[in-house]
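Run log, item B.
One chain of 316 residues. Sequence copied directly from the ordering sheet:
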Amino acid sequence: MKNTLFIIGASLIILGGIIFVGFMAYNNWNFSKLWENKYQDKTEEITVDFSDILVTTDTSDITFVKSENGKTEIFLREKKNKPHNVKVENGTLKIELCDERAWYEKIFDFGSAKIKISLPNDIYQNLNVKSSTGDVALSKELTFNDISIIGKTGDVNLSSSALGKITINLSTGDIDVKNTTCEDVELTLSTGDVEISSLTAKNLNVSLSTGDVDIDNAFLESLTLKTTTGDVELEKVVANGKIKIITDTGDVDFSRCDGAELEIETDTGDVEGSLLSSKIFIVDTDTGRKRVPETTSGGIAKITTDTGDIIINIVN
């Protein structure tokens, strides 16, 4: 009996493989044929007032833009059996995934849905985005009180501003923040690169496991940056308070940067750069060169590395 069931099961697997290979060969191995005609496009107009926005989805690319016609419109490209429910509830615009598929329909879940949210107002309250796989983009014409983006795999491209805090937490993907003003920024990423440009904020906190960090033209109260593996590059980053950078493996390079106090620590990597004002330098390296200005005024600049050079100069 067991042998018979095994033969039947094996035969069904082989038959399925033959059908799949035949289908793909007929379509010149174009994998998009697997999910075409399963998607539907629709646009929903919102006429009810709201101040907060909540988006919950899994594999959708999400874009927030300023409306061109003065209306709130939600464009959805979604699978027919994975629709999104759009409604306004207690002052919150909610866009939530309704997955109506059977378990076996989730095995080959290819393709990517799209959500485009067109907003007529300049300022909104709280924006919360929760996604598994997909990119998120916010245009510079929009401002929110607080912005929270939580995802697993995907890139975030943020140009919107916040009156309060911007929080981005990803597992895998790149984070690009540019032309932004806010109170606090907290970026958490496991694998990927972080790029920040033209940022004005009080506190910037970046936590990264594997990837590079590039910050250009930022005016802050304080900067705290922790990374495990990757290089750190800062250009024209000025903090009224403390700049703290801790990295295990990677170089720290900075150009025309400054802070009231500096603390830079790396296990394996060089620390090189230029500051805008004199400091009282406390430097230590086990294996490497040390060359810093012999200034005796200014804030404390403590720089340590196990393996690497420490080369700092002061520029006007």
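Observations after the first pass:
- DSSP finds one helix and 26 strands in the chain.
- The mean pLDDT is 89.
Flagged for discussion on Thursday.
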